[in-house]
Amino acid sequence: MGNKSALTAQDVADMLGVSKNTVYNMIKNDELVSYKVGRKIRFTEDEVKGFIKRSQTARQTTAELSPADGVQTNNGFVICGQDIILDVLSNYMRSYGISALRAYIGSYDGLTLLYKNRVNVASTHLWDCETDEYNVPYVKRLLPGTSSVVIHLTYRMQGLYVQKGNPKNIKNWEDLARDDITLLNREYGAGARVLLDENLKLLGIFGSSVKGYETEGKTHLAVASSVSSGKADVAVGIEKIAKQVDNIDFIPMKKERYDLVIKKEHINSNEIQTMMNIINSAAFKNEFASIGGYDTSDMGKIIAEV
């Protein structure tokens, strides 16, 4: 990438997996610090890495919440989830005058917070092995007595992160129970962990028999980086992150559906209608159409009314 203290907007877009327009919006919203060389905008690599770290640890968000305490929705419009596509969505909403806040919490806990009225939108990518269906079975279980709408955002590929060259010759879920393999797991409630647990269940493998099962990483980037550095042999995550971390190979396992869930009673609110208009717009879809790891062909489609 050349001089690491003089990254271009395109360099930053490639690192973050977003479009150049999103990078410019981040500058406008004071989310990224840049400097000028003549008329050209440049960035330092340390600043971009700092932004990634802040995003992944939720230090940058205005709404930091946990399943236990949370932030009441009257403090702002809260979108719950960890993918950067939600950061871009919240930026768009703020440009329309809506105080869109972010909560960096996994799928299961996000649905719980939605049920408790502590967030307005929950993202989810939870696979149910009994129905081979994403998200809808969990919405039914975790939002009892609540009429909900499931809106599709993107398809992503989930799989296994292994070191470059796959030195342990890991091929499938069964290999994770081998004595010579150490897993780095995701936290309880994360979609990646649910995918792992559901597949172990189908194979009759208890998590307690998997070496490293109780050791957790909080993000896709964290677990991928640990595999890259040799601290673990394998982890579960999305394909897009594998392209951003050195010394990693990716073994695709399951195409997942990444959806948004809202309460049906709020569907005609200004905030939800604005969000729907954004994710159905050509401008928003084009942000991700050419980025590896996202399939936006059905973005904005209502999957189910539960």
What attributes does this structure have?
two-stranded antiparallel ribbon, Multidrug-efflux Transporter Regulator, Chain: A, Domain 2, seven-stranded mixed sheet, 306 residues, 13 strands, alpha/beta, D-Maltodextrin-Binding Protein, domain 2, 33% helix, 3 domains
How would you describe the overall organization of this protein?
The protein has eleven helices and 13 strands. By secondary structure, it is α/β, with parallel strands linked by helices. It folds into three domains: 53 residues, Multidrug-efflux Transporter Regulator, Chain: A, Domain 2; 149 residues, Periplasmic binding protein-like II (D-Maltodextrin-Binding Protein, domain 2); 98 residues, D-Maltodextrin-Binding Protein, domain 2. The strands form four sheets. Strands 3, 4, 5, 8, 11, 12 and 13 form a seven-stranded mixed β-sheet that branches. Strand 3, helix 4 and strand 4 form a beta-alpha-beta unit.
Order of helices and strands: HHEEHEHEHEEEHEEHEHEHEHHE
The percent range for helix content is: 25-40%
Broad CATH class of the largest domain: Alpha Beta
Count of individual beta strands: 13
Named at the architecture level, the CATH assignment of the largest domain is 3-Layer(aba) Sandwich
Largest sheet: 7 strands, mixed
Q: What structural class should be given to the helix and strand makeup?
A: alpha/beta
Strand residue percentage:
15-25%
The fold-level CATH name of the largest domain is D-Maltodextrin-Binding Protein, domain 2
Arithmetic mean pLDDT = 88
What is the molecular shape? globular
Helix count equals: 11
Number of domains: 3
Task: Report low-confidence residues grouped into runs of 5 or more.
Answer: 56-64, 66-74
CATH superfamily of the largest domain: Periplasmic binding protein-like II
Q: What's the end-to-end separation, in Å?
A: 48 Å
Radius of gyration of CA atoms, rounded to a whole number: 19 Å
